[in-house]
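Sequence only, no structure available. Ideas?
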Amino acid sequence: MRDLSAGPRVLLKRLRELMAEPLEPQERLDQIVRQIAQNMVAEVCSVYVLRSDGVLELYATEGLNPGAVHLAQLKMGQGLVGTIAASARPLNLSDAQSHPAFTYLPETGEEIYHSFLGVPILRTGRALGVLVVQNKASRTYREDEVEALETTAMVIAEMVATGELKKLTKPGLELDLSRPVAIEGASFGEGIGLGYVVLHEPRIVVTNLLNEDSEHELGRLAEALGSLRISIDDMLSRREISMEGEHREVLEAYRMFAHDRGWVRKLEEAIRNGLTAEAAVERVQSETKARMIRLTDPYLRERMHDFDDLANRLLRQLTGYGAKLSASSFPNDAIVVARAMGAAELLDYPRQNVRGLVLEDGAVTSHVVIVARAMGIPVVGQAAGAVALAENGDPIIVDGDDARVHLRPLPDLQRSYEEKVRFRARRQEQYRALRAVEPVTKDGCQINLQMNAGLLVDLPHLNESGASGIGLFRTELQFMIASTMPKAEEQEAFYRNVLKHAGGRPVTFRTLDIGGDKVVPYFRAAEEENPALGWRAIRLSLDRPGLLRTQLRAMLRATAGADLRLMLPMVTEVSELREVRDLLQKEIQRQSKLGEQLPKKLQFGAMLEVPALLWQLDELMAEVDFVSVGSNDLFQFAMAVDRGNARVSDRFDTLGRPFLRILRDIVRAGIRNDTSVTLCGEMASKPISAMALLGIGFRSVSMSPAAIGPVKSMLLALDAGKLEAVLTPAIDDLKPTASIRQILTDFAAENGIPL
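Reply:
I predicted one. Tokens follow.
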């Protein structure tokens, strides 16, 4: 490459012409390697492509034995080529054979060549193959030659990605890009979803790779960078985020990247070598990603996400690309794959088309997960690498039961899952048939089966499931998905709508339970060491009485002439109930003064989630009309177990004796004080734990809509009195030999109870 600037440019111009010609894939590849060899004055140029079985196969060569094409193979990590693919880094050697990784392949005839330059063929940070040049003379290739080869590798990456090379693949083998991938994650929402990938932030495919005018492209880059920097500065100057905090640090990292001279210099260099501005961004992004993907430090890997976001923003600036798929191109069976997303973003998608959700981040308590579960969508979270491995339109299976994601599944696996889905559907049909059947146990105990809800999309489930009412309506979800604080009128209209959909069935509204892990975008709370035990729910509401009074006013107006069931979350002391009752009384008086209609009947209740209330049970029940046990939080606080921490969340069993004794004491206090007690939490949603609840005396439970069918099927076959006779001594046993879970399983098997 005598003229340093002309070399890459001439080469790319030739490659552009080659890409436009109507050639067969093999001929095109052969021509490409020939052109590279000529341009770089190399005696050898070879292309290796990665197959799905982890083998790098020689696909084209100029200079090596032509008979070795499609025969010469190296495993990932084997030889120099395998090392480049595994590390995703170039290798520049003056004497290849002295390198410890060198592997001699006799069929290629490459033993006479000494100098070696190999670069990975990268796409979105994934190695798809390796491009190599070799010379007999010992020399180290110049930096501009490495640069030119890396740029050329991009063109080949696009050939691989478009599927052009599939025709050259031996029968029974696949390229790595289309290989089936199984990703293990964490189950955030049960169920199985089969469909096609919809990337939440679709990858921008750069089609125009090679430039005609470098100066023009440098101008486009400078303009796009300027717009990007302004938009980031704009974000940082906004009033709501000008405070300190984690989100501020993230944006500062964005700003730092956007002004990073090293990054900009790399981009400009790639443009001078003949790439368009967008192709330069993609190339630098792919290289950075390939390096950073291999980092083990979680902080640095997180910074990679920041960098990725920034590069995508820049690509959008350059291409003028809109992120979302249009409704017409949205598949009927969509599985949304995202790194992270907000609850409102999920609701933007057509609900009837979404069959599942895959997240790289998130926790079981993330807002988007809560909303997805409410919509009955299976969710797998912590699915590392899902976004990079998936392409829009790829077939995918989300298994929320086993916490697995199968990308591009094999036909046999696809068939077995289809069968699994059909089986589940048959079971759902059976449950639907039970919809009108009264939930009465074999020995005549009437059980009140209610459902949990939080959004309007949940309400059709009320009829479908056959629930008797809504035992827990999470009012905070309306606040979490809104971009600004809902006004009193908006809240009133929302609650009115909920009651209308309920069609006369009871609805228990829980007042705002924000704070802790439930972050509201427009409400900045201070950083807390332990948010689950911090300023949240009723504690926050009593400190901000205006917020609570607005909500109470909206509820009173919405239920005018009807029944209002109202309960308070996270109550710790009975005195808190009295404080809220005083505020409620003021709102009732205000409404009366204005001559507005009041609710026909008002029932005031409390959620029992804080263990301190266990020593105030009689005082509590004297103060309220009903009690609802929040089993999720009560278990977390009673066992000192953070439910968001995977290391300890499954350490103790909800069906363990200590927790069942606590629940039994609450039921007994309810009977003693003639106060109705309901349990609403995950415990009620599983047939085995719901059976335990009925065995210790619960006669009212509230659960997710999908669980009502299985729980009703269980209770119709259950003799509750018989179970109680078995369970009571087992719970009181001080020297047990079997776990309660085992006792329940055996009881169900002996009595033909479906679990």
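The CA atoms of residues 726 and 743 lie 9 Å apart.
Hope that gets you unstuck.
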